[in-house]
Each structure stands twice: as structure tokens, then as C-alpha cells.
């Protein structure tokens, strides 16, 4: 009887140890919700929304930070003579390798389309739906702040 209890105790200890190791590894697994060292709370802008500077010929305007499933997106516009001369995503999801991969091609397309369209009616970038939606939301807020 003592031998069978000893075998059962060793088996239980082995199962418990394997379970603890597995749970520990799961906590280390990177997910798209791990956003690196900079953490944003929902609705928190990475830069102050609204007109940032307007004393020169070019006005700089930040949109509000738009929360997406994978992280916030915020757009900054440079406006001269009532026209958008540049659009920059100053915050966007970069917490995982997949986020960086998607946004490395999506952000430049969205920025170029903004300057070409001169409004927020730009297409969604295939494979970057959440970033595109957040970008358009922040872009529209920047356009509203710039009165365009």
C-alpha cells in the first residue's frame, strides 16, 4: 500500500510541476495587447489634441487618440493655406512584431492617401482594418480642429 501511495504522490508532484511550468510560459507569451513599454489608457492621447502651433505659415494640428483593438492611433496634420501638406501617424500599434509588420506598410499608405484626398474619405488598407479605422477617426478630429 505504501509503495502505491509513493508512486501516486510522485505522479501528482510531476503533474503539478508541469502545470505550473505551462502556466508560467503562457504568461510570457507575447500577444498583440502587449504594447511595449509605453502604455496608454483608453481615451488618453499620446500628444495633446487640437492646434499645436499656428504662428507660422504652417499650422500643426493633432487629432484625438483613437482606441483600436490593438492600440491607439493618433494623427498629426501640417496645414498650409487651407490644404494638408503632410499627415503623420504619431501613435499607432507597435507592441508586437505583427503590429509592426502590418503598420510598416499601412501607415505610409494612409498618410499618402490623406494628402491626396485632402479629407478623411480614404480607403481602408487591406490587412490593417483596425489601424485604418482608428487613423480615419483621429484624422477627422484633426480636420475638425483645423476647421477643414
Helix content: 40-55%
C-alpha Rg, in Å? 24 Å
The arrangement of helices and strands along the chain is HEEEEEHH
| Class by SSE composition | alpha+beta
Shape: rod-shaped
Write down the oligomeric state.
single chain
Cα end-to-end separation? 84 Å
The major β-sheet equals: 5 strands, antiparallel
Percentage beta strand: 15-25%
Overall pLDDT metric: 85
Would you report the number of β strands? 5
Low-confidence stretches: 32-44
Helical region count? Answer: 3
Write the layout of secondary structure elements.
Elements (H helix, E strand, L loop, with lengths): L1 H27 L21 E4 L4 E5 L3 E3 L2 E10 L2 E9 L5 H21 L11 H17 L3
Antiparallel strand pairs: 1-2, 2-4, 3-4, 4-5
Brief synopsis:
This protein has helices at residues 2-28, 97-117, 129-145; strands at residues 50-53, 58-62, 66-68, 71-80, 83-91. By secondary structure, it is of the alpha+beta class. Strands 1, 2, 3, 4 and 5 form a five-stranded antiparallel sheet that branches.
Describe this structure in words.
- The protein has 148 residues and is of the alpha+beta class.
- The chain has helices at 2-28, 97-117, 129-145; strands at residues 50-53, 58-62, 66-68, 71-80, 83-91.
- Strands 1, 2, 3, 4 and 5 form a 5-stranded antiparallel beta sheet that branches.
- A hairpin with a 4-residue loop joins strand 1 and strand 2 (58-62).
- Helix 2 (97-117) packs across helix 3 (129-145).
- The longest helix is centred in the first third of the chain and has 27 residues, at 2-28.
- It is rod-shaped, with a radius of gyration of 24 Å.
Amino acid at each position: 500500500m505504501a509503495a502505491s501511495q509513493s508512486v501516486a504522490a510522485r505522479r501528482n508532484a510531476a503533474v503539478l510541476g508541469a502545470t505550473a511550468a505551462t502556466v508560467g510560459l503562457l504568461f510570457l507569451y507575447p500577444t498583440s495587447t502587449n504594447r511595449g513599454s509605453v502604455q496608454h489608457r483608453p481615451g488618453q492621447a499620446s500628444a495633446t489634441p487640437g492646434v499645436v502651433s499656428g504662428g507660422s505659415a504652417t499650422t500643426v494640428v493633432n487629432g484625438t487618440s483613437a482606441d483600436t483593438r490593438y492600440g491607439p492611433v493618433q494623427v498629426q496634420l501640417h496645414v498650409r493655406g487651407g490644404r494638408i501638406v503632410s499627415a503623420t501617424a504619431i501613435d499607432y500599434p507597435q507592441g508586437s512584431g505583427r503590429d509592426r509588420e502590418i503598420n510598416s506598410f499601412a501607415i505610409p499608405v494612409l498618410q499618402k492617401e490623406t494628402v491626396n484626398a485632402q479629407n478623411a474619405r480614404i480607403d481602408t488598407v487591406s490587412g490593417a482594418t483596425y489601424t485604418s479605422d482608428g487613423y480615419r477617426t483621429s484624422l477627422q478630429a484633426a480636420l475638425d480642429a483645423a476647421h477643414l
